[in-house]
Specification:
- The chain has a domain of about 60 residues.
- The chain is built from 22 helices and 27 strands.
- The relative contact order is 0.11.
- Helix 6 packs antiparallel against helix 7.
- The strands form seven sheets. It has an eight-stranded parallel β-sheet. Strands 3-13-12-5-8 form a five-stranded mixed β-sheet. Strands 4, 9, 10 and 11 form a four-stranded antiparallel β-sheet that branches.
- A hairpin with a 5-residue loop joins strand 1 and strand 2.
- With about 750 residues, the protein is of the alpha/beta class.
Length: about 750
């Protein structure tokens, strides 16, 4: 057993200088953390320096640290107004305004009312004017109404000399009567003026009454893996609509929860992971059903033949049990979509397309421009002169590639229409929630979001997780994190726009690793995943804005709150009305025994397993240990881990049989059904059932810590024998029908 590191020291014996620790703390970088075993771990000085540098804070020498510490003390005094102000409705808040000492100052709030596109309807929506032009696509003219004058509070604060200038502080009170919304806070003094974003968020995101009144259940699905005979080799939005309808009409499900539909690259090779997208805001055209685009029906015979020829080779892949070939699928779909794109649209359809582009704004045009440029470069390195979306070089190329920019805008419109239809299909069949979407933690460092949002992302670091029981080497997800201060300076607009897109056409959204809205594990470039540090975020702002946008969209929010975290975080999320995640396989008491159903949280989505583990049958057979041993991922003895897995299974069988949910020697199917009955006995508002569990699948969709060693995110849905299960055959599967019966059993009176 190793000695615990002493306070102020790290595991490698080095010591964090007090001034470096002070600087790190001032910028939200945690110098220590509690690991999954409850032990206090110290962060190394080199990690702290690298993370601070990624935040734009000089810390490479003792002199730089000293200067940065002094600068940090006066940071908030340098600006007249804060970067942004986010508060809760019904709360009176005081805001500091910094002006020349002794100068008079006034402050007021302009309230948000309605938003209308600033671009005239006649403007070509995909041609974006140069920065600063009044007709730039994506700018919005907000119709402003009530102006609320603020009163100055009787708060005396001593002035301070900042950068050789004497600065005073006036404190103004934001009244507790401000409405929900995105407002603007103004201040004026001695001919100088400033304004900043003011966001008033709901105190709590309330669950709809019909969901709060009765537990809802639904299937959890990796959509690409669920294929029909009409699919082009992977599940798509037409399949989602059919799946939603089937599981509601035949199974009584209230929702279908899916993997992120985020955008992939427009060129080969495609990244298979839905959690490493090129953009989180926009969707992957891989999920388009070409035949469901209205214009496809009116193609000429010759053009229709081109679409059919493109589909033939990949449609055959739908019944192939091998890994899903996204590259082949995209080549086929892209060829077909380019044919459909050239077909004329009716006046109403063209207007709907134009209005979609205008409503999505500059973000969509930048994304489409990135796709067009990426395609144009054809594998060549991205030139430095095209690194800024607002540069003249990008503007010139955007105009030259106008047709391709239009094409990629059109694809997003088509996806939006088909997603809306899929969600509607579930609701029309009786679902209370419909489609439940998923928002990934971040996006590819070389992708569209990283290009368009570069100003609010940190560079030189990536996001991951420290070591835990299931990933003993830690995890590096390769994602660039939000830069906390830069995001605030942008008025949280990139975050707001992301949420507004993700919250479209769904009844719920799962926020992957919601703990990242509190703190993220930043790993310096080139370092091991374990050699990181936590960077804190303004969770009150990020969770508040999430609640505001979800409230406006009428969407329930589930936060994936698994992993290493402080206990108060779950309490905070529950207070704000964000549901947590309870995974039965992980819910154990201090002795290691499964907690009783009655001890589960009510404000949660309860599931048996997750997509990062084998389906339940495989997990309880210890196949997660076998797989990790085969891939060389274990840092503990495999024999010990297998024994632990057996103990886990035995403890589950004991508690299930004691409650009369299984026999003392249950079959695999009986055990899986017993575990789901166990979840039905919990007070959890939502219960999720893995579709893989329902059909007897044993293969994991993802093995964390691997890349090419395992076919992550490419495993088609199959039964226990490895035979592909198509969408048309779902309710012919005896195991699925039996589990659906379990989920629809009424509780005893």
């Amino acid at each position: 057993m190793t000695d615990e590191p002493k306070p102020g020291s790290t595991g490698d014996g080095s010591t964090v200088p007090p001034e470096l620790a002070e600087l790190a703390t001032a910028h939200g970088v945690q110098c220590e953390y509690t690991d999954h075993d409850g032990r206090l771990q110290q962060v190394s000085p080199s990690t702290l320096v690298a993370v601070l540098e990624a935040l734009g804070v000089q810390a490479s020498t003792p002199g730089a640290v000293t200067a940065s510490v002094e600068r940090a003390k006066d940071d908030e005094w340098r600006a007249m107004l804060p970067s942004a102000v986010v508060t809760r409705e019904g709360t009176e808040v005081q805001v500091a305004v910094h002006v020349a000492d002794g100068a008079d100052v006034t402050a007021w709030v302009e309230l948000e009312q309605t938003e209308t596109p600033a671009v005239p309807a006649s403007a070509t929506p995909w041609r974006v004017a140069a920065p600063g032009a009044t007709t730039a696509t994506g700018s919005f003219a907000t119709v402003r109404g009530t102006r609320v004058q603020l009163r100055q509070a009787d708060v005396v604060t001593e002035p301070r000399t900042v950068d050789s200038r004497k600065v005073g502080r006036a404190t103004f009170t934001l009244p507790d009567t401000l409405p929900l919304g995105w407002h603007t806070l103004h201040a004026e003094s001695a001919g100088q003026s400033a304004r900043t974003t003011l966001v008033v968020t709901p105190a709590r995101l309330e669950l709809r009454e019909e969901i709060a009144r009765k537990q809802a259940w639904g299937f959890m699905v990796q959509l690409y893996s669920v294929r029909s005979r009409d699919s082009w080799g992977m599940g798509d939005l037409a399949d989602l609509g059919d799946l939603a309808w089937q599981t509601a009409h035949n199974g009584g499900a209230d929702f279908v929860a899916i993997n992120p539909l985020h955008a992939t690259e427009p060129v080969l090779p495609l990244t298979p992971s839905p959690y490493l997208p090129t953009s989180r805001r926009f969707m992957s055209p891989l999920y388009v059903r070409v035949e469901d685009i209205r214009e496809t029906a009116y193609l000429s015979a010759a053009d229709r033949s081109l679409v059919e020829w493109a589909a033939e080779p990949v449609r055959e892949l739908s019944e192939d049990s091998g890994p899903i070939d996204r590259d082949a699928i995209w080549e086929a779909k892209k060829a077909a979509l380019e044919v459909v794109w050239t077909a004329p649209r009716s006046a109403a359809r063209q207007t709907a397309f134009d209005e979609f582009v205008l409503a999505q704004g500059r973000g969509l045009v930048d994304f489409a421009t990135w796709c067009a440029i990426k395609e144009h470069l054809d594998g060549r390195d991205w030139p430095a002169e095209l690194s800024d979306p607002g540069s003249s070089g990008v503007q010139t190329l955007r105009n030259a590639l106008a047709d391709r920019v239009q094409f990629y805008c059109w694809l997003q419109w088509v996806l939006d229409e088909q997603l809306r239809a899929a969600h509607r299909a579930g609701l029309d069949a009786g679902m209370r929630l419909g489609v439940f979407k998923d928002l990934a933690v971040g996006s590819n460092p070389e992708g569209a979001d990283a290009w368009s949002d570069a100003a609010v992302l940190a560079r030189g670091v990536s996001v991951g997780a420290p070591p835990d029981m299931y990933n003993q080497q830690g995890q590096n997800w390769g994602l660039p994190p939000w830069h906390p201060r830069a995001l605030a300076k942008a008025g949280y607009a990139p975050y707001r726009d992301l949420l507004r897109s993700v919250l479209r056409h769904c009844g719920g959204v799962r926020i992957d690793h919601i703990l990242g809205l509190f703190r993220l594990w930043w790993i310096p470039g080139g370092a091991r995943a374990s050699a990181g540090a936590y960077v804190t975020y303004d969770h009150e702002a990020l969770i508040g804005i999430l609640c505001l946008e979800a409230h406006r969209a009428g969407v329930a929010v589930v936060g994936e709150d698994l992993g290493t975290f402080e206990p108060w975080i779950r309490e905070y999320l529950a207070e704000r009305g964000v549901l947590g995640t309870s995974v039965l396989l992980f819910e154990r008491d201090e002795s290691g025994a499964p907690i009783e159903p009655e001890a589960y949280r009510s404000a949660a989505l309860a599931t048996v397993t997750t997509h990062d583990l084998p389906p339940t049958a495989g997990y309880l057979a210890g196949e997660h240990v076998d797989l990790r041993e085969r891939l060389g991922l274990l840092t503990e003895d495999a024999t010990v881990l297998r024994a632990r897995a057996r103990q886990e299974r035995e403890s589950l069988v004991e508690v299930l049989s004691r409650r009369g949910l299984t026999t003392f020697d249950p079959s695999e199917r009986e055990l899986v059904e017993g575990l789901h009955r166990y979840l039905k006995d919990t007070p959890a508002a939502l219960v999720g059932v893995s579709l893989a569990d329902a059909v007897g699948e044993r293969r994991a969709q993802n093995q964390p810590g691997t890349d090419s060693e395992y076919p992550n995110w490419r495993v088609p849905l199959a039964d226990s024998a490895g035979t592909v299960v198509l969408l048309e055959d779902l309710f012919s599967n005896a195991r699925l029908r039996s589990l659906v019966t379990v989920m629809n059993e009424e509780p005893p009176a």
